[in-house]
Amino acid sequence: MLLTDTLTENVSTIHDNKVVIPEGIQKILGVSDGYRVMFIPDGEEVRVVNPAVHAMRKLQEAMKGAAERAGLYTEDDVVALVKEVRAELAEERASKNNESVHRHEYSDFLRHMA
What ranges make up the beta strands (E) of 1-114? Predict the structure, then answer.
Protein backbone atom coordinates (compact mmCIF):
# COMPACT_ATOMS: atom_id res chain seq x y z
CA MET A 1 0.00 0.00 0.00
CA LEU A 2 1.37 3.38 -0.97
CA LEU A 3 1.46 6.16 1.58
CA THR A 4 -0.56 8.36 -0.75
CA ASP A 5 -3.31 5.72 -0.75
CA THR A 6 -3.82 6.10 3.01
CA LEU A 7 -2.79 9.53 4.21
CA THR A 8 -1.63 12.77 2.63
CA GLU A 9 -0.30 15.56 4.81
CA ASN A 10 0.95 19.02 3.93
CA VAL A 11 3.47 20.53 6.32
CA SER A 12 5.50 23.72 6.40
CA THR A 13 9.09 24.17 7.44
CA ILE A 14 9.67 25.91 10.73
CA HIS A 15 12.73 27.63 12.21
CA ASP A 16 16.03 26.44 10.61
CA ASN A 17 14.13 24.48 7.91
CA LYS A 18 12.93 21.86 10.36
CA VAL A 19 9.84 19.83 9.50
CA VAL A 20 7.36 18.48 12.01
CA ILE A 21 6.24 15.05 10.88
CA PRO A 22 2.48 14.69 11.34
CA GLU A 23 1.35 12.10 13.88
CA GLY A 24 -0.32 9.88 11.26
CA ILE A 25 2.89 9.76 9.21
CA GLN A 26 4.91 9.04 12.37
CA LYS A 27 2.70 6.03 13.05
CA ILE A 28 3.17 4.73 9.52
CA LEU A 29 6.95 5.14 9.83
CA GLY A 30 7.02 3.69 13.34
CA VAL A 31 8.79 6.76 14.76
CA SER A 32 8.12 9.28 17.51
CA ASP A 33 9.90 12.22 19.16
CA GLY A 34 13.66 11.79 19.09
CA TYR A 35 13.69 9.14 16.36
CA ARG A 36 15.62 9.69 13.16
CA VAL A 37 14.16 9.53 9.68
CA MET A 38 15.90 9.20 6.35
CA PHE A 39 15.15 11.27 3.25
CA ILE A 40 15.73 9.37 0.00
CA PRO A 41 15.61 11.33 -3.28
CA ASP A 42 13.47 9.46 -5.80
CA GLY A 43 13.32 11.35 -9.07
CA GLU A 44 11.35 14.54 -8.46
CA GLU A 45 10.07 13.24 -5.12
CA VAL A 46 11.65 12.46 -1.78
CA ARG A 47 10.76 9.39 0.26
CA VAL A 48 10.78 9.65 4.06
CA VAL A 49 11.65 6.32 5.67
CA ASN A 50 12.51 4.83 9.02
CA PRO A 51 16.29 4.25 8.67
CA ALA A 52 16.27 1.05 10.75
CA VAL A 53 13.55 -0.48 8.60
CA HIS A 54 15.28 0.74 5.44
CA ALA A 55 18.62 -0.80 6.53
CA MET A 56 16.95 -4.12 7.35
CA ARG A 57 15.26 -4.23 3.95
CA LYS A 58 18.57 -3.47 2.21
CA LEU A 59 20.26 -6.24 4.21
CA GLN A 60 17.50 -8.68 3.33
CA GLU A 61 17.85 -7.78 -0.35
CA ALA A 62 21.62 -8.24 -0.23
CA MET A 63 21.34 -11.57 1.57
CA LYS A 64 18.59 -12.96 -0.65
CA GLY A 65 19.66 -16.41 -1.83
CA ALA A 66 22.77 -16.49 0.39
CA ALA A 67 21.56 -19.51 2.36
CA GLU A 68 21.01 -21.52 -0.79
CA ARG A 69 24.40 -20.49 -2.15
CA ALA A 70 25.96 -21.69 1.11
CA GLY A 71 24.13 -25.02 0.81
CA LEU A 72 21.70 -24.29 3.65
CA TYR A 73 18.29 -25.63 2.71
CA THR A 74 16.82 -26.78 6.01
CA GLU A 75 16.90 -25.78 9.65
CA ASP A 76 19.06 -28.87 10.29
CA ASP A 77 21.62 -27.50 7.81
CA VAL A 78 21.76 -24.23 9.76
CA VAL A 79 22.09 -26.04 13.11
CA ALA A 80 24.93 -28.17 11.74
CA LEU A 81 26.76 -25.07 10.44
CA VAL A 82 26.36 -23.28 13.78
CA LYS A 83 27.77 -26.32 15.63
CA GLU A 84 30.70 -26.49 13.20
CA VAL A 85 31.54 -22.80 13.60
CA ARG A 86 31.25 -23.00 17.40
CA ALA A 87 33.58 -26.00 17.47
CA GLU A 88 36.13 -24.13 15.32
CA LEU A 89 35.95 -21.09 17.62
CA ALA A 90 36.36 -23.26 20.73
CA GLU A 91 39.40 -24.91 19.14
CA GLU A 92 40.92 -21.50 18.29
CA ARG A 93 40.34 -20.26 21.85
CA ALA A 94 41.90 -23.39 23.33
CA SER A 95 44.91 -23.01 21.04
CA LYS A 96 45.36 -19.35 22.03
CA ASN A 97 45.05 -20.24 25.72
CA ASN A 98 47.72 -22.92 25.33
CA GLU A 99 50.04 -20.46 23.59
CA SER A 100 49.47 -17.96 26.38
CA VAL A 101 50.23 -20.57 29.06
CA HIS A 102 53.44 -21.58 27.28
CA ARG A 103 54.54 -17.93 26.99
CA HIS A 104 53.97 -17.38 30.71
CA GLU A 105 55.85 -20.57 31.58
CA TYR A 106 58.77 -19.46 29.39
CA SER A 107 58.72 -15.97 30.97
CA ASP A 108 58.76 -17.52 34.45
CA PHE A 109 61.65 -19.75 33.42
CA LEU A 110 63.64 -16.79 32.12
CA ARG A 111 63.02 -14.83 35.33
CA HIS A 112 64.32 -17.70 37.44
CA MET A 113 67.40 -17.99 35.25
CA ALA A 114 68.28 -14.31 35.74
Answer: 13-14, 18-19, 38-42, 45-49
